[in-house]
Amino acid sequence: GAGVSQSPSNKVTEKGKDVELRCDPISGHTALYWYRQSLGQGLEFLIYFQGNSAPDKSGLPSDRFSAERTGGSVSTLTIQRTQQEDSAVYLCASSLPVGSYEQYFGPGTRLTVT
Amino acid sequence: AQSVSQHNHHVILSEAASLELGCNYSYGGTVNLFWYVQYPGQHLQLLLKYFSGDPLVKGIKGFEAEFIKSKFSFNLRKPSVQWSDTAEYFCAVNAGNNAGNMLTFGGGTRLMVKP
User: Fold this and answer.
1) Torsions phi, psi of B97, nearest 5?
2) Does A107 lie at the interface with B, CB-CB under 8 angstroms?
3) Contacts of A107 in chain B (CB under 8 A)
4) Is B102 within 8 Å of A104 when comparing Cβ atoms?
5) Residue B93 near residue B69, CB atoms below 8 Å
6) φ and ψ at residue B85, rounded to 5 degrees
7) DSSP state of B99
């Protein structure tokens, strides 16, 4: 079946602009996660959605970052007023509900802030 | 908060050599443990996982890992590597409760296998 998909695959933006990154999870996966992979910080958790519960935003690095998940499926990660330190690969993962911990990752969006 | 340490950042081996990549975590409670692999140009893929039971787990492509609770370790092993194993390997942990399934990753180990 189809895996996790993300778009765009690459995004170059100017400092100060807003960007939106999209994630389509595997059908039937109610849990969705965003991670960031950067040279200096490795792989970091950003935010977690589980069904209709309030998201766990504990990993978001600043209030410029936000995410939403519409209809329990597609998710959008928004970064406002981008900074150069936001340059990274943003990874989305999905999994079955709590009790199954295996996460399936998408190919990522490489964000470059110039 | 939990943390994960991978001791080797870069490893270079010749084909047929044996591999062991170290992973230690810090968390006092029940944990679920994972090794993920990222081949060049590809996305993260699950190699193997440990939830409970036999502490020696076998994954894909001949990889295995052993959970040693007393050492807080989950080292990855392969008896004979191949050139196609060249990739970056990540150890990951999540707390074995229902507080959320987010993964905490180690810093990764880049493995290069020389043909």
Assistant:
1) -135, -175
2) yes
3) 42-43
4) no
5) no
6) -85, -5
7) S
DSSP of A18-44: -EEEEEEPPTT--EEEEEEEETTTEEE
Whether A59 has its CB under 8 Å from any CB of chain B: the answer is yes
Per-residue pLDDT reduced to its tens digit, B57-106: 999 999 999 999 999 999 999 999 999 999 999 999 987 665 567 899 99
Which residue type does B55 have?
A: P
Three-state secondary-structure class, residue B54 = coil
B93, closest residue in chain A (CA to CA) = A101
The pLDDT tens digits for A57-104 are: 999 999 999 999 988 799 999 999 999 999 999 999 999 876 656 899
Interface test with A, best of B37, B43, B52 (most A CBs within 10 A): B43
In single-letter form, the type of residue at position B50 comes to Y
Residue A66 CB partners (closer than 8 Å, separation 6+) = A60, A77, A78, A80
Q: Answer whether B74's CB lies under 8 Å from B66's CB.
A: yes
pLDDT number for residue A30: 87
| Residues 64-93, chain B, touching A (beta carbon < 8 A) | 90, 92
Minimal Cα distance from B31: which residue of A? A101
Owner of token pair 């189809």: A2
Tens-digit pLDDT profile for residues B4-42? 999 889 999 999 999 999 999 998 788 889 999 999 989
Search chain B and give the residue with CA nearest A58: B102
- Which pLDDT value is given to residue B111? 97
Instruction: Say how far apart CA B81 and CA B85 lie, in whole Å.
Output: 6
